[in-house]
Amino acid sequence: MPSIAEQVASRRTFAIISHPDAGKTTLTEKLLLYTGSIQTAGSVKGKASARHAVSDWMDIEKERGISVTSSVLQFTYDGACVNILDTPGHQDFSEDTYRTLMAADAAVMVIDGAKGVEAQTIKLFKVCTLRHIPIFTFVNKLDHDTRDPFDLMEEIEDVLGIGTYPMTWPIGSGRNFKGVFDRNSRRVIAFEGDGHANATKKVGEIEAELGDPALDELIGEENHKNLMDDIELLDGADNEFDLDAVRHGRLTPVFFGSALTNFGVEPFLKDFLRLAPPPLSYTDTLSGEPVEPSRDEFSGFVFKIQANMDRRHRDRIAFVRICSGKFERGMDAYHVQGDRTIKLATGTAMMADDRATVDEAYAGDIVGLFDPGLFSIGDTICAPGMRVQYPPIPTFAPEHFARITQVDTLKRKQFVKGMEELAQEGAIQIFRELGTGLESVIVGAVGVLQFEVLEQRLRSEYHVEVSRTSLPYSIIRWIQNSPDELDVRTLKLTRETCRVEDMRGGRLLLFTSDWNLDWAIEHNPDLQLSEFGNVTF
Ligand code: G4P
Fold first, then answer.
1. Cα–Cα dist 252/213, whole Å
2. Ligand 1 midpoint to CA 258 (Å)
3. 20 to 30 Å CA-CA from 429: which of 226, 258, 295, 312?
4. Does a structural domain hold residue 460?
5. From the CA of 27, how far away is ligand 1's center (Å)?
6. Distance (Å) from CA 467 to ligand 1 centroid
7. pLDDT tens digits, one per residue of 378-391
8. Which structural domain range is residue 304 located in?
9. Residues 484 and 373 in one domain
10. Contacts of 533 (CB under 8 A, 6+ apart)
11. Is 113's C-beta closer than 6 angstroms to any atom of ligand 1?
12. Structure pTM?
């Protein structure tokens, strides 16, 4: 039996971040196919046997009537136990997407080679930088015409502020895409399409020095010449490969490929597993010291709470990132915030395409615990006798705001209870305008769908009808100055700017545009603002 330390050392836990449609689902699926975790490609269209991409969690939810969003796919490959955390995009993009990144030890950023760095990627990237986790880049869709790879590198560096180090380099793009050059092994991995997106095959992989006539034959003379020029430029560039910079999120190793046609996925996976770190340590806020993941005692924190996995029950599932030691089903654990010992009766996780009960898990893994309403986001649980407390999860800036008012004023109690519970679960954020009560609150959400979910849940779970008015705010900033230092009433602000408080008493400003934000900064030189609330990392 491997020891706890060996189990932990074999873990690699990461999330894939991307703008919708860049290819996150396709890449996830190809990784699962490649590692033998699934047998059928969900992207094979028009066949009765076609299965959905396993990571298309929302579809699975619809089909099976269960909710498995933001879960984890686990597989083993080449001695590593790999956890891929789902980061919902599209309509189900929400604060949970951000919170999931707090539980990952690395991120893979998928970029559409024709589009470059897009809005949602920038937001997700910023969250990754809070913890300085390593970020690997996969430039996708090389089978289509893409932008010049040098331009893309420059854009990543300029827009995201991270150094780039191409690990592979594309040979042509679109119809002329011939494969990739692996800079480390100096191999050319050549591919050839046969006109059908999924029927592309690897036609050769040779280790040959650039300039070798064998390469003329494999990829064509002109491609070979262009590749030599590109590599000469790259080898002469300033950015050295620096593992320490990668591990601290200052340099991103970049890979090129086409997830759909399986170009470049294999070199990516191999290098990723070689370079990505085993579970990182989280800091115990009580001692200020990092907690060693390989330590025997179990500890972890709740990063996400999912309501109503089974609609017949009101149970919730609390997703816990294990930070140290070993989890065993049925074990006793101390819930720090609740100050009591509880039994961790059931754990679930997504094992490839089946939800399975987990009997044991280790630091780096995620387990889902049935939660009768005990936990809040950010809570710590640990082995009885161990005293640690992990930092709270930051609050992320919502981008949509609405005023929610209860329709039937006699149901005030239920309304307040519903709003507070849903906010505690992290489904929405609620704000109080300075000087007003709780019968009407401002609600902020990262994704607009959250408002509908909120209304529906207030109706079905709390029997409360509400009315909703959209508000024009789109930018939110937490005030960093202490109340002694700064009285918000004295701030000079435009008329469109709103002063509010969050549930934790944090003071914030809501702006309708960058112009109003800039105005506030300019006219209040001492004002310190942050895009995240509650950050203690
Ligand atoms: P996402 O999870 O990041 O949102 O992206 P997803 O993988 O769903 O991919 C979005 C679309 O891009 C899909 O096409 C997918 O087939 C396509 N795609 C992904 N990787 C590649 C690639 O390497 N090359 C090309 N040419 N296309 C790629 P769709 O037509 O929108 O969806 P579907 O109907 O094929 O599922």
1. 32
2. 10
3. 312
4. yes
5. 9
6. 38
7. 999 999 999 999 99
8. 282-382
9. no
10. 394, 395, 396, 478, 502, 504, 506, 508
11. no
12. 0.87
